[in-house]
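User: For my dataset I need records formatted as: sequence, then structure tokens, nothing else. Please produce one.
Assistant:
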Amino acid sequence: MGQSVRDDSTKVVPVEREAPEQSIIDEVIWVVGNEAILKSDVERLRAQSEMEHVAWNGDPDFLIPENIALQKLFVHQAAIDSIEVSESEVMSNIDQQIEAWISIAGSRERLEEWKGQTVTQMRQSLRDEFKNVALAQEMRKELVKDVTVTPADVRNYFKNLPQDSIPFVPTEV
């Protein structure tokens, strides 16, 4: 009785081709340390700021990633300096945000419909973001706690600044 050996393997030859644009899931636009800032993060914040009628003093496509990058830098430094925030402070800030959204949407049900999540799910998804915001605020406070500048200090600084170092600022911008 002879046994026959059957080769069930299949050769796969990779085909090099470029992915169509619609298959791109997300895009890294900036990297801060080892933290990526994604295009979707910027788009989400832009949409949220439009919904909340936030006016940007400049180009949002530049300012939003810059603000995200600064926050990531502050959070990173807060971790190095062992700065912490309480869970109750984070949850309080989340509750304030959700209440603001409810007042904009008109009702809790309309907010849930608009966001596509229950309020409980929103609380859970906002926790890390709001903790990072609170850590960044604490780090900012820590950095400037010993800084004291009086109006006289400011006047002296500009009085002693060379004329050619003072930028021209038009009376109307």
